[in-house]
Amino acid sequence: MTRSNEKSIIVQSIARKEDFMICTNCGKDLPNEANFCINCGTPIEAHEGQNPDAEIESPIDNTVESSDENEAGFSGFEISNSNYESEPETKLSDAEVSNDSGKKPKKKFPLLKVLIAVVIVAALLPLAAVLGYHTFLPAKLTLAYANFRSPNNIYDVIDKYLSNYENKTLKPLYENSFGKKAELSLTADESLLSGLEYSELGYLIQGINSISFTTETVTDVKGKKQTANLGINVLDTPFLKLNMFLDGTRFGFSIPELSSKTITGDLKNLSKLSETFPEIPSELLETYESMDPWQFARLQEEISFDRDELKKVLKDYSKVLIQSIDSGDMSIKRGQETQVLGSTLQCHEITIELDQKDQAKILTNILTKLENDNRPYDLVIGNFKKLLDIYGNMYSDLFYGFDTETYLSKENYKNAIKNLKNSINAQDFPEKITARLYLNGYDIVKYEYTLGAADEVIITVEQKVTDLSFDVNYILSAYDGSEFAYFNLRLRGDYDKNSDTTDFTASMDLDAPDAFASIDIKSDESLTSGNVIDHNFMTQFVFDDGYGQGARFVLKMSGNKTRNAQKLVTKSSYNGDLSFNIYGEYIDPVNFGLGFTANTETEYGKKVELPGLDPSNTLDISTAGQQEYEELMYEVYQNIYTLLMPVGLF
Fold it and tell me: CA 20 to 30 Å from 203, out of 117, 162, 483, 575?
């Protein structure tokens, strides 16, 4: 049977179905009760008198071009709907039709229309969500959505900064050996030292200007090996030099200008010194004897925070906080002009008012979450226990009589939370807490908390985060009816991705009834060439006791630093000055200042070379006797006299 005949059978089968009429305009199947065509809109009058069993002309042109391809495929099959006219075609009897498969032809599923509908819905849903967020969503849903989105920006910034610190500071130092050289020179003049009363001020200034200090270290953290040379130079000539090495817990040091001997030993044998030097407290020796000189390496290896887990924990508890607040305690005002970090923004203002019962409910829910959640314990107390294991011996007096294993156990932790939850009394909370949150777009840009019904304490947090740039401001003001206190901390970092540099500023002000203090820090970086960065740094601390007496400390530095291909600093050179000023009505003012020049050089991958020791010139603390120590001390005193006699101190 040809394709043309097959098509004719299908068309005539459709035309003879008793449950449908057929539109004479477009050929669409129609239910008998239809008043118009659901496809082309032709009125039902066009179908009046139509007999479902009548023969109709197919609106489809079945013209087939004869070719061999028609038997195998549809390459010659053409359909024409032009003017809905068709050629007469051979009619088949009912018997011929019934001899076909006996099944009604399946109606083609409108897949294209479904796909179009899905695309439209997918496009409209976010639009509806955005419109809802900005227009009609209630306060709680608006805050929940913003609280899900906004903290992610802050977490991402923290995560990126920690990653940069690990990659640029920790990993190069802990995963490879490295060498580092540093030189520090001091300068002074009478104007900087004018506050000092010293008859030989000129000699002091001359001595300061002639002195410089040098250090050279090579460290292999993984191999637990280090060498260090510390030098004091006078007029660029070596005056004293201390040579040291560390190999695991074994050490050695020498000062060639004072003795030809190298003192060696093991930290585990330090208590032996008490036999020769009883004036040294044995407790002190025992403390250092149990100390691991590579504790900082253990700190890096054993204590770690899963930042992804920490992020999940903070988000989970933030969710508990919002879920604990009743919708009736929240309201929203949209399009409010709000001052944030010195700029005026259009924000949604969400107000939350919590009475004592509401506050007790929130704390109860958070404690319940803590009681059934092991993550905070593992992240905080678990790492604290590791810290005690590393440094506990150094601070044994601090923890004397304190059973850390019991007090810091998970069971004790759970019991403490349960007891705290059971002891919650709503009357212990502030009479009222009012929180106002300001949302700019999807970001929470400002928090404002008022504690107490009479505005006793107001806490404000303003924040803006973009990539690795941030601006955060914390303000606390308190008034008890007679006295006012104010605290402000602002941190700002402007990151330039192209140059991989950051300008950073920090300021802190504390204005209390009896004191004022401020700290200012400013660091500016600018890339001047492919690998050189100009860097200016300033920090200032000011304190005043409220009665006209105080102090000021200022440090200024300017210079540059050079980076390698991995953007690790390999060289730096700075000039700076340090000044200290004490003033007051009842004290003599003191002005003290020093200038300095500092240069550093770092070589990554440099290997540690431990010094060779001559047994005849070595004093081992584990075997040395009283006579050897006496001979050593006599040699040292003689050489000190020889060194200092030319400068008139003997």
Answer: 575
304: Cβ–Cβ under 8 A, 6 or more apart, which residues? 383
Q: What tokens does 510 get?
A: 């504390």
Rounded-to-integer distance, Cα 312 and Cα 308, Å? 6
Rounded CA gap, 366 and 372, in Å? 10
Tokens of 550: 């105080």
Q: Phi-psi bin for 605: left (phi > 0), alpha (psi -120 to 50), beta? A: left
Tell me the HSE value of 479 on the side-chain side, using a 13 A CA sphere.
8
* pLDDT band per the 50, 70, 90 thresholds, residue 132: low
* DSSP β-ladder status, 262-266 and 618-620: parallel
Phi, psi of 454 (to 5 degrees): -110, 25
> Who's near 193: CB < 8 A, 6+ residues apart?
201, 204, 205, 591, 592, 593
How far is 261 from 255, CA to CA, in rounded Å? Answer: 8
Q: Which residue has the tokens 């817990």?
A: 249
Q: Evaluate whether 249 touches 296 at the Cβ level (below 8 Å).
A: no
Around 263, how many Cα atoms within 13 Å sit in the side-chain half-sphere?
19
For tokens 């071009």, the residue is: 65
pLDDT digits 0-9 by tens, 447-492: 999 887 665 788 999 998 887 889 999 999 988 777 888 999 999 9
What is the enclosing helix (H) or strand (E) of 535?
strand 532-544
Say if residues 356 and 429 touch (Cβ distance below 8 Å). Answer: yes
Closest CA to 263 of 623, 627, 642, 637: 623
* CB-CB contact of 78 with 4 (8 Å): no
Dig out the tokens for 499 from the structure. 């140059």
d(CA 95, CA 3): 20
Would you say 55 and 91 are in contact if contact means Cβ atoms under 8 Å apart? Answer: yes
CA geometry: angle 166, 388, 300, nearest 5 deg: 15
CB atoms within 10 A of CB 535: 19
238: its two tokens = 């070596």
CA 556, 495, 526, 163 torsion-angle sign: positive
Torsional class of 187: left (φ above 0), alpha (ψ -120 to 50), beta (otherwise) = beta
Query: What is the residue-averaged pLDDT of the chain?
Result: 78
- In the prediction, which pLDDT does 483 show? 80
pLDDT of residue 39: 67
CA dist 35 and 141 (Å) reads 47
Contacts of 140 (CB under 8 A, 6+ apart): 322, 325, 327, 330
- Interaxial angle between packed helices 356-371 and 410-422, expressed in degrees from 0 to 180 and rounded to the nearest 10: 160
Cα gap 523→492, rounded to integer Å: 10
pTM score over 0.90:
no
Using CA atoms, how far apart are residues 420 and 263, in angstroms rounded to an integer? 56
